[in-house]
Amino acid sequence: MRKTPLPTALPAANRLAWLVLCLGLLSVLTLLSLTLGAKSISLAIVADSLFGPGQHPDAIIITEGRLPRTLLGLLAGAALGLSGAIIQALTRNPLADPGILGVNAGASFAVVLGAGVFGITSAAGYLAFAFVGALATTLLVYLVGAYGTARLEPMRFVLAGVAISAVMMGFASSITLLNPWAFDRVRFWSAGSLDVRDLDLVLQVAPALLLGIVIALLLARPLNVLGMGEDLAVSLGSRPRLIHATAVLAITLLCGASTAIAGPIGFVGLMIPHIARWMVGTDQRWIMACTLLLAPVLLLASDIIGRLLVPGELRVSIVTAFVGAPVLIWLARRAQLSGSRT
Amino acid sequence: MTPARLSLAQPVPDEATPYHTEPATVRLRGQHLRLGYGDRVICPQLDVRIPDGSFTVIVGPNGCGKSTLLRSLCRLITPQAGQVYLDGKQIRDYPARTVAQQLGLLPQSATAPDGISVLDLVSRGRYPHQSLLRQWSPQDEIAVQTAMQATGVADLAGRAVDELSGGQRQRVWVAMALAQETPLLLLDEPTTYLDIAHQIELLELFRHLNRHNGRTLIAVLHDLNHACRYATHLIAMREGRIVAEGAPGKVVTADMVQQVFGLPCLVMADPVSHTPMVIPRGKVHMA
Ligand SMILES: Nc1ncnc2c1ncn2[C@@H]1O[C@H](COP(=O)(O)OP(=O)(O)OP(=O)(O)O)[C@@H](O)[C@H]1O
Ligand SMILES: [Mg+2]
């Protein structure tokens, strides 16, 4: 048959350039996150308090405040971004958000339950409740969504997630209405912030987040094949049910842990994988790598903006929403222009 | 209605089929299959044997269960009764990847991920040959390039699949299935959307793969003349049953076509290939 020379694959170089750019941005923002704030601290003092004797009076701001905050920004950012990449690949819907599995609702409900019914007051206590709540809810959504079908249909998960979230939110509101003190605690938690002021809390969720990140990265190749549709996925030797279950596990770990410690933070999981796809194309391995670097950039940047914008600090979830909403509108318009294949 | 089988004979050897000089072995077969969806039974009782090294073509009217049969042979649907065997062992007892290295599928309709390039899509056919530790090898590269050259899509490598014409896209999917390099390959209507020249080109390619690379091909085709010309083994289905099977020269008769498709026709020898040629008698032209 016809013999034609293959065009040399250009995109690989482009992809790499994007990754390098993202890595550069991430490094810059990590440094900025450590230095900027209500009080700007020079890099020399930052380095001294992290790696040196830390004699400077500002050292405590770094070690107690900005280090946990930055670390959490990196971990939670990666977690939210990757879980978004997974859910978008799984549902083949570029506008899917990891929240559709009910993680936020489950975590909120559990925190309300902990504060209102069990009288929990410690941050570690909320953490545990929120994580278990997220885990249990996602499991419930998965079981309801997967129950009784030979084929797994993402739409069923979405519906199950929406329904169960609504019920959980209803319960949570009733408890907070009856118990104003719980309402106060939960309002604080549910605002979404990186300002944890406790390195130990971050270290408590780190294992779950790191495990989730590793699973997410291992899922990249199987998700690539699942993207060809279930029939081809099977005939190419992958096992869709196993991939689905693993993906849900990864999302639960990632979203559950980050929501437990930082509260619900929207838009990162929706937006970053989308931008990553625009940069590096359709290969999940590249999307995941790009998301891993870019999502913390957004979260750290939003956090820094929040610190600098108003004296009392704007919470990061609010800033991501401000940044995210215009981008979302832009994405929606772009989807329409390209014939709206969603 | 239980139509009698017209022939159960092995394909007769002729100069076109060097692989069938002795009774063919069977790697893939279905035994006492009952296939359906939920309560709906499509094939109540089916036994099928795919002669090894054959180019088996399945023909039959729309909705008679051809795709259903193919899907059961590559474990996309679980038979309600009966079993599918690969090399004498139940196919569902193999690890998924092992089967995928032996048995490939081109589905009747497939959707490419948004914005994927031709090269990336064809490369995904190599999935069963890769692992976490063995990501991309020179063999993968050769397989992908060979498949793209063979199907004439090499010059489309960098294009987005969703921007191709229907026929170009179909050839990309065929390239993807070929890149999987399985000894057994199931093709559900591989020639749809293709112009006549590309249809013949593709069928010639399949024949080449069958004869010279020893691949066993199982294809659903709608064009009876193509089926007669290229098949070494023909399976005619109607309403979920196999009505006739064997070498096209033996089983394709006017009666058989009438029985399977309800279409009055004339069967003559194809002047080029000397295989049966089916000429429908339209009402208007009937004497
Ligand atoms: N997923 C499904 N659920 C329920 N019924 C189905 C499903 N897929 C196919 N069928 C039914 O099974 C019957 C056989 O379908 P099948 O796809 O096997 O036909 P076919 O011989 O391949 O037809 P065609 O030539 O049109 O491709 C049809 O009546 C069809 O409506
Ligand atoms: Mg069909």
From TrEMBL, chain A:
Residues spanning the membrane: 68-87, 99-120, 126-145, 157-181, 201-221, 242-272, 284-302, 314-332
Its placement in the membrane is given as: Multi-pass membrane protein
Q: Where in the cell is it found?
A: Cell membrane
Q: CDD domains from the xrefs?
A: TM_ABC_iron-siderophores_like
**Is Nucleotide-binding given among the entry's keywords?**
no
Q: Does the keyword Ribosomal protein apply?
A: no
Q: Which UniProt keywords apply?
A: Cell membrane, Membrane, Transmembrane, Transmembrane helix, Transport
Q: Which family does it belong to?
A: Belongs to the binding-protein-dependent transport system permease family. FecCD subfamily.
Against NCBIfam families, the record matches this protein to: PRK10441.1
From the Swiss-Prot or TrEMBL record, give the protein name: Iron ABC transporter permease
Lineage at the top is:
Bacteria, Pseudomonadati, Pseudomonadota, Betaproteobacteria, Neisseriales
TrEMBL record, chain B:
Where is it localised? Cell membrane
**PROSITE patterns given for it?**
ABC_TRANSPORTER_1, ABC_TRANSPORTER_2
Q: Which Gene3D superfamilies match?
A: P-loop containing nucleotide triphosphate hydrolases
Provide the membrane topology annotation: Peripheral membrane protein
Bilayer-spanning residue ranges: none
Please give the superkingdom of this protein's source: Bacteria
Task: Report residue spans for region: Disordered.
Answer: 1-20
Q: What is its main location?
A: membrane
Pfam families referenced in this protein's UniProt entry, alphabetically: ABC_tran (PF00005)
Q: Which InterPro entries match?
A: AAA+_ATPase, ABC_transporter-like_ATP-bd, ABC_transporter-like_CS, P-loop_NTPase, Siderophore_ABC-ATPase
Domain ABC transporter: from-to ranges: 28-264
Keywords per UniProt = ATP-binding, Cell membrane, Ion transport, Iron, Iron transport, Membrane, Nucleotide-binding, Transport
Gene Ontology MF, one: ATP binding
Q: What is this protein called?
A: Iron ABC transporter ATP-binding protein
Q: Which organism is it from?
A: Chitinimonas prasina
Taxonomically, what lineage is the organism?
Bacteria, Pseudomonadati, Pseudomonadota, Betaproteobacteria, Neisseriales
Q: Which gene encodes it?
A: fepC
